[in-house]
Amino acid sequence: MLDAAYPPYNPPSGIDVTAFYIGGDAVHLWTDAEIRNIRTPYALPIYVCDKPALHSGYADGTHAGAWMQSHGIPDGASVGLDLETAVDPAYVSAFSGAVSKFGYRTIPYGSKSSLFQNPKCYGYWVADYTEHDHLYPGTIITQYYNGPTYDLSEVAPGVALWNINPVEDTQEMLSMLKLDAGLSYLPVPYVGTNPKSLSVRLTAQSEGQVDVYWGRGGKWVQVASQAVTYGGSLRIDVPTDGSVDLFKIQSKVPLVGYIFGE
After folding, report:
1. With contact defined as beta carbons under 8 Å apart, do 158 and 176 qualify?
2. Tell me: the pLDDT tens digits for 82-94?
3. What is the pLDDT of residues 139-167, one digit of tens each?
4. Which residues, other chains included, contact 130 with Cβ-Cβ below 8 Å and sequence gap of 6+?
5. In DSSP terms, which residues pair with 226 in a beta bridge?
6. Which residues make beta-bridge pairs with 3?
7. How far apart, in Å, are the Cα atoms of 146 and each of 39, 108, 109, 132, 142?
8. How many domains does the chain contain in total?
9. CATH code of 124's domain
10. In this structure, are strands 2-3 and 17-24 parallel, antiparallel, or unpaired?
11. 3-state secondary structure string across 121-150
């Protein structure tokens, strides 16, 4: 997951969640246009309050929940509460309670020295700068890299996020693979189990060319050839009769590959 004060000009490859700022003491509140330009499948809005003693948790939580509702975020999604080093259990509880009235969940964020003195709410998001992706014990998100223009975090599987760019409402994500530039192979799951539908979505992490083939038994048919920019996606519907069990992808750019099915 990437979080940044401003949309980064040159984000890293392999990102599937974008965290952005919607209120409070944030340096920059992302505009609706910037949010619409998010190209990752998932997103996490963040509300900042590093001096909670000066604010009402209920009022801030109401503001965050109302913002999420007005932007059409489905019930059950989460909002990050950026506390930095602040400890104020009453504020966090009031914020979370207000957010929950709108149907959303709260993920408190902060440093290891202070975060765990606040209520857990839906789950903790801690800063632990090891420079490699990992989950700190007892957390559902761990920020492991603090950079000049963006930070990076590892997110536990199944965390409730805003599916900002769904492939289809009726399909669920079955698997995700990070693909380096060059030649890659992407297996198709559930071949022979007669799923209702399958689709592959390839999201580019920089600008270049992508050629896609599908096949079975070593016989290949080209199904896509497209120039892409960062965040650009190719969607390919896959036959469900077992005639295709593997994709061959020749790409000049890193990709994130998602397989969706019903």
Report:
1. no
2. 999 999 999 999 9
3. 999 999 999 999 999 999 889 999 998 75
4. 144
5. 210
6. 19, 151
7. 22, 18, 14, 11, 11
8. 2
9. 3.20.20.80
10. parallel
11. CCCEEEECCCCCCCCCCCEEEEEEEECCCC
Give the closest residue to 104 by CA, choosing from 46, 182, 24.
46
CA distances from 10 to 34, 148, 153, 230, 252 (A): 15, 12, 17, 9, 17
Under a CB-based contact definition with an 8 Å cutoff, are residues 81 and 25 in contact? Answer: no
User: Residue 169 — pLDDT band, cuts 50, 70, 90?
Assistant: very low
Q: Which residues contact 148 (CB under 8 A, 6 or more apart)?
A: none
Last residue of a domain, which of 126, 155, 184?
Answer: 155
Q: Are residues 149 and 228 in the same domain?
A: no
CA distance 19 to 255: 20
Residue 200 bridge partners (DSSP): 236, 259
- The residue out of 95, 129, 155 marking a domain boundary is 155
Closest CA to 187 of 130, 261, 244: 244
* Separation of alpha carbons 81 and 52, rounded Å: 11
Question: Which residue is associated with the tokens 């805003």?
Answer: 162
Kind of pairing, strands 17-24 and 42-48? Answer: parallel
**Angle formed by the axes of helices 57-70 and 89-100, nearest 10°:** 30
Residues 83 and 134 in one domain: yes
